């Protein structure tokens, strides 16, 4: 059994069946971190002794016949933004360099209660504010497929750690493609659930106990190497928790077994006016032909009659308003409340238009991002795609559309480009339909080949 590239489900089963111990599983992952992290720089805060003590406790519980939950004994890492008792949470921001929360966030608490063993934190963009994971505290994370290129952001450390076998799963955040883009760049799976599905309580350092301002478009979600693992972690962390009052009491369902022959898939190799590499569009079309060959009903998407560029701008404006509310001092000319409600009304129109779109299909297949992993650069530097320079800030556009609309979307591995870099494809579904969306992804998984291990790991 290859411990570090086993799935979460396989690891948990092997530990429950006493084929391996939790300590052995932990030590294997710590050794993988020691072997590769110096080059990749995905793991930045390591609680080696705390994790070993927890592993010994979990093994002792199993010896008494106690199984703590579906993650019993599985070691894992978390993106450096979750508040964790006894471990620093910095978001790569020097003023938070030594911040340690008094309690775990609800998501962290659920993962631990399910038997997971938290061993480390992974690297991020400073304050989660970029699509490269680089910050003044810990430096930059390299892409395991090519260290001269970015792993993406802001969940770049998370995606790189999963791809290199340093952890079996992760939980990232996604306000503008921040789970799906790095998952795509590193060749793993990443799920952005429906907005208000997973608690945002404790999802950011809060030393002063300030009012939570980020309440829209931002989501927590899992990254993993298989669809089954995504589904498992999603079910553990989703649903009301008594802390985030925005959470909807919608049942968290099990992933269904689906037959491609019964599915209607709309495809969009590109969105009008959005740049995209030709090899990514071709990967969308190639998978569409494969699905059609397996009996799925596949058709070119008739996208909602929306100005998607305007939606991106409006989403950015909403984010700006939320960040304004988070400042310790009010600006001299604060945004009028009427403008906030106008922005929400515009967003409602987009949400409803996409709701109507998904009445006619089970899922939309489209790009995750406009390119594969690009060379490390200063934020704002233009990105070359098929010989043309494109605007850096369009990097997350294909994903950010669905942050604005709130619909669930996941990134799945879709092959490699001519440089040997992973191509990620995006699958989007109806709101509150994560289980079905995951089921569709699992039905597609045999066609794409799923996760591939980067060379050298």
Topology:
Layout: H1 8-16, H2 22-40, E1 43-46, H3 48-63, E2 75-79, H4 106-113, E3 117-122, E4 134-135, E5 139-140, E6 142-143, E7 146-150, H5 156-163, E8 169-174, H6 180-186, E9 189-192, E10 219-224, H7 227-237, E11 264-267, H8 278-293, E12 297-300, H9 308-326, H10 337-357, E13 363-367, E14 383-385, E15 388-390, H11 397-405, E16 409-416, E17 422-428, H12 434-448
Parallel strand pairs: 2-3, 11-12, 11-13
Antiparallel strand pairs: 1-3, 4-5, 6-7, 8-10, 9-10, 9-16, 13-17, 14-15, 16-17
Helix pairs in contact: 2-3, 5-6, 7-12, 9-10, 9-11
Q: What's the β-strand tally?
A: 17
Q: What is the CATH homology-level superfamily?
A: Amidase signature (AS) domain
Summed over residues and divided by their number, the pLDDT gives a mean of: 96
Which sequence of SSEs, written as H and E, runs from N to C?
A: HHEHEHEEEEEHEHEEHEHEHHEEEHEEH
Give the DSSP E fraction (strand runs of 2 or more residues): 15-25%
CATH architecture: Alpha-Beta Complex
């Amino acid at each position: 059994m290859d411990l570090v590239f086993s799935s979460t489900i396989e690891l948990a089963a092997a530990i429950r069946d006493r084929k391996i111990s939790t300590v052995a599983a932990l030590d294997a992952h710590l050794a993988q971190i020691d072997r590769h992290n110096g080059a990749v720089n995905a793991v930045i805060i390591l609680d080696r002794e705390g994790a070993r003590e927890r592993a010994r406790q979990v093994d002792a519980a199993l010896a008494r016949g106690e199984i703590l939950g579906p993650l019993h004994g599985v070691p894992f890492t978390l993106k450096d933004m979750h508040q964790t008792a006894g471990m620093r949470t910095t978001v790569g921001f020097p003023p938070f360099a030594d911040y340690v929360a008094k309690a775990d966030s609800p998501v962290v608490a659920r993962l631990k209660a399910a038997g997971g063993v938290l061993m480390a934190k992974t690297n991020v963009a400073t304050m989660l504010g970029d699509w490269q994971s680089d910050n003044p505290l810990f430096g930059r994370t390299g892409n395991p497929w090519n260290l001269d290129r970015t792993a993406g952001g802001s969940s770049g450390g998370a995606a790189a750690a999963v791809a290199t076998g340093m952890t079996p799963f992760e939980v990232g955040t996604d306000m503008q493609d921040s789970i799906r883009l790095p998952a795509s760049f590193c060749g793993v799976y990443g799920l952005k659930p429906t907005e208000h599905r997973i608690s945002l309580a404790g999802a950011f350092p809060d030393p002063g106990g300030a009012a939570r301002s980020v309440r829209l478009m931002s989501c927590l979600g899992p990254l993993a190497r298989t669809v089954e693992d995504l589904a498992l972690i999603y079910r553990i962390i989703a649903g009301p928790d008594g802390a985030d009052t925005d959470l909807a009491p919608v049942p968290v369902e099990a992933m269904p077994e689906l037959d491609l022959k019964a599915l209607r898939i709309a495809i969009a190799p590109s969105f009008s006016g959005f740049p995209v590499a030709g090899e990514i569009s071709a990967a969308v079309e190639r998978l569409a032909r494969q699905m059609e060959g397996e009996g799925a009903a596949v058709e070119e998407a008739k996208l909602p009659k929306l100005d998607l560029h305007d939606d991106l701008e409006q989403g950015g404006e909403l984010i700006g308003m939320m960040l304004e509310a988070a400042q310790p001092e009010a600006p001299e000319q604060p945004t009028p409340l009427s403008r906030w409600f106008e922005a929400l009304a515009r967003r409602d129109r987009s949400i409803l238009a996409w709701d109507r779109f998904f009445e006619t299909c089970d899922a939309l297949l489209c790009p995750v991002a406009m390119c594969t992993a690009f060379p490390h650069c200063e934020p704002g530097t233009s990105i070359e795609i098929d010989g043309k320079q494109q605007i850096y800030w369009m990097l997350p556009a294909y994903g950010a559309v669905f942050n604005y609309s709130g619909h669930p979307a996941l990134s799945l591995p879709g092959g490699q480009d001519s440089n040997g870099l992973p191509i990620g494809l995006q699958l989007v579904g109806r709101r509150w339909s994560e289980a079905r969306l995951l089921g569709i992804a699992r039905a597609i998984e045999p066609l794409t080949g799923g996760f591939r291990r980067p060379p050298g790991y």
